[in-house]
Amino acid sequence: MIVKRLIIADPHVGTREGDAEAMIAFLERAERKGVGEVLYLGDTFQYLIGMAKFWTPGIEKVLEAWDGFRSRGGTVRLIEGNRDFFLDEEDLACRIDQSALSLEFSAGDVTFRMVHGDKVNQRDWQYLFWSGLSKCLPARLWARWLPRRLAIAIVRTMEARLARTNRKFRYQKPVKALREEALRAFRRGVDVQLFGHFHTLWTFADGEKMAMVVPAWLETRHALIVEETGQWHGVDENLQPVELTEGEVTYG
Fold first, then answer.
1. SS3 138
2. Model pTM score
3. Of 1, 7, 218, 236, which has the fewest CB atoms closer than 10 Å, so is most exposed?
4. All domains of the chain, ordered by start, with CATH?
5. Greatest C-alpha distance within the chain
6. What CA–CA distance (Å, rounded) separates 191 from 162?
7. Where are the beta strands (DSSP E) in the chain?
8. Average per-residue pLDDT in the chain?
9. What is the pLDDT confidence band of residue 129, given thresholds at 50, 70 and 90?
10. Alpha-carbon distance 189 to 206, whole Å?
């Protein structure tokens, strides 16, 4: 598909007052600039459960913006992050074009791969355990049947455990694991490997191939544009080209 793409990492919409409106304005500017596909690199909201009974007013506002964008021919795709649960449930699935643990696409002669990155370090056993538990079939069934208030409380408790166990790897990047993941992707023909989750910039080059942790929109209001030709660069909240830099991490 020949299309201009916008890639947004870790917005965590719902963390700050007014950030849903800021995200909607960002999407509207992107559409005016010719963006035809928006890809979220995980953790789009403070938490996102695929059942509508758990959606906050902020989530509803952004979903309505996605509805409008898609009705005009745009596409919206989500990478599953650690704050995302059961994205394949029908309530959400009908409001987006795709959700997945990883995605690949080509632009020009360049192949891109996206993965959130929270599970890249397979030695972080405690985090992997809690992540698996919070997204297992019994947890899905609880989410379907529990009253809204109780289910949200459970999800917040599980997310708090994830944050505590994964914090040292988020703020102290598992560089060896990131490099190994990138090299595996490069061997499969990927040219650009993109990660989220860690919130601040990290890059790794192997010849002409590149891996990057995309800085979080939450702190920087920066994102990536991928042109139809495969050229890509950072943009600020006004969609102006910007050099991506380290973002100060102020939220877990």
1. helix
2. 0.86
3. 1
4. 4-242 (3.60.21.10)
5. 53
6. 31
7. 4-8, 35-40, 48-49, 75-79, 84-85, 98-100, 102-107, 110-115, 192-195, 202-206, 209-213, 223-226, 232-235, 241-242
8. 87
9. low
10. 13
Alpha carbons 35 and 1: distance in angstroms, whole number: 13
Residue 133: Cβ within 10 Å count: 13
DSSP string, 19-54: HHHHHHHHHHHHHHTTEEEEEE-S--BSSEESSGGG
Q: Are 101 and 110 in contact (CB under 8 A)?
A: no
And the tokens for 131? 């992540």
Tabulate helix, strand, coil % of the chain (nearest 5).
40, 25, 40
pLDDT of 118 reads 86
pLDDT at position 251: 35
**pLDDT tens readout for residues 147-190:** 877 766 765 665 556 555 545 445 678 899 999 999 999 999 99
CA torsion, points 187, 102, 6, 88, in degrees to nearest 10? 160
For the ranges 14-18, 91-95, 247-251, the maximum mean pLDDT occurs at 91-95
Whole-angstrom distance, CA of residue 16 vs CA of residue 39: 21
172: left (phi over 0), alpha (psi -120 to 50) or beta: beta
Q: Is the pLDDT of residue 28 over 90?
A: yes
Length of the chain: 252
Under DSSP, the state recorded for 216 is P
CA separation for the pair 77, 67 (Å, rounded):
12
Q: What is the pLDDT, as a whole number, of residue 135? A: 76
CA angle 14, 161, 57 (to 5 degrees): 20
CA proximity to 214, closest of 116, 118, 119: 116
Beta-sheet pairing, 75-79 with 98-100: parallel
